[in-house]
């Protein structure tokens, strides 16, 4: 059985580039209609123009009212939301002792509060249809912790608790909620690493390479599909064995 998402409507936050873009490409390749989302609507529309059956939407996920509007606009634009992928995320790294309150709040709002608000808004339509697939992009850092990333690790660990709670609250309505935890993936987010840091990291990865965005996208497509119909409340780690 191959992954067939024909007729499904998917919203992927932060899908103008990086992992989110790869997820959008993969879901579209499996037949889904996809909402591309970034802060700049024009950029999101330009990306959507490159993907079959995609539409672009602008939304800053740190602003709660914009998320509510996004969900309503995507429901109107695509005719509903069957698959919600909470992928948009940021880092504001610093050692914990030097971390400013603003750095803490910005990362929690962008990575964790945004997912809660999107899930709360999108799950209403999913409950009516008795179908929904919610996939939150967390990180191995949320499971392992990381020096210099107390805010980011806390936001990603928070997503795990959110995922498991939503799975329990909405399971009876056939809404599945899972998380995908990538290790270190080649994107803008990891491009700033020094060559030395990259070498040291690779020494700890059994598969001896950083991941590619498509490595994450495959797991998301599987979780969104009927092949994963009995999977909920789980965290799928895609890290080349780093956390093993
Ligand atoms: P990138 O920095 O490459 O891309 C981030 C995406 O999020 C962009 O599409 C950006 O769109 C969007 N975005 C950022 N801030 C906002 C905002 N306030 N509102 C709406 N959209 C926003 O990140 P990655 O692809 O590397 O990461 C994607 C997810 O995967 C994140 O949640 C990250 O934490 C997670 N992850 C990444 C790992 C990695 O190694 N790269 C490892 C583990 C997890 P735009 O600029 O157009 O607004």
Short description:
By secondary structure, the chain is of the alpha/beta class.
Looking at the structure, what is the overall shape?
globular
Order of helices and strands: EHEHEHEHEHHEHHHE
Largest sheet: 7 strands, parallel
Low-confidence stretches: none
Distance between the termini: 29 Å
- Bound ligands, named by name, code or SMILES: NADPH dihydro-nicotinamide-adenine-dinucleotide phosphate
Strand order of the largest sheet: 3-2-1-4-5-6-7
* β-strand amount: 15-25%
Structural class: alpha/beta
What is the rounded Rg?
17 Å
Figure out the total of helices. Answer: 9
Arithmetic mean pLDDT: 98
Proportion in helices: 40-55%
Find the count of extended strands (DSSP E, 2+ residues). 7
């Amino acid at each position: 059985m191959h992954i067939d998402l024909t007729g499904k409507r998917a919203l992927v936050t932060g899908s103008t580039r990086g992992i989110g873009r790869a997820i959008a490409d993969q879901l579209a390749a499996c037949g889904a209609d996809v909402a591309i989302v970034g802060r700049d609507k024009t950029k999101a529309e330009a990306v959507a123009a490159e993907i079959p059956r995609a539409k672009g939407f602008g939304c800053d996920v740190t602003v709660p009212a914009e998320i509510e509007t996004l969900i309503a606009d995507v429901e109107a634009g695509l005719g509903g939301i069957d698959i919600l992928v909470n992928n948009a995320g940021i880092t504001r790294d610093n050692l914990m002792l030097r971390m400013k309150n603003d750095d803490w709040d910005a990362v929690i709002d962008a990575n964790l509060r945004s997912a809660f608000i999107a899930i709360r808004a999108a799950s209403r339509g999913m409950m009516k249809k008795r179908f929904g697939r919610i996939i939150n992009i967390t990180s191995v850092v949320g499971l392992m912790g990381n020096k210099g990333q107390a805010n980011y690790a806390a936001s990603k660990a928070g997503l795990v608790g959110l995922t498991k709670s939503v799975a329990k609250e909405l399971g009876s309505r056939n809404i599945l909620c899972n998380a995908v935890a990538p290790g270190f993936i080649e994107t803008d987010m990891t491009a700033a690493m020094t060559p030395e840091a990259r070498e040291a990291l690779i020494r700890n990865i059994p598969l001896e390479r950083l991941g590619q965005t498509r490595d994450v996208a495959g797991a998301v497509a599987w979780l969104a599909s009927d092949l994963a119909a009995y999977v909920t409340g789980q965290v799928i780690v895609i890290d080349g064995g780093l956390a093993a």
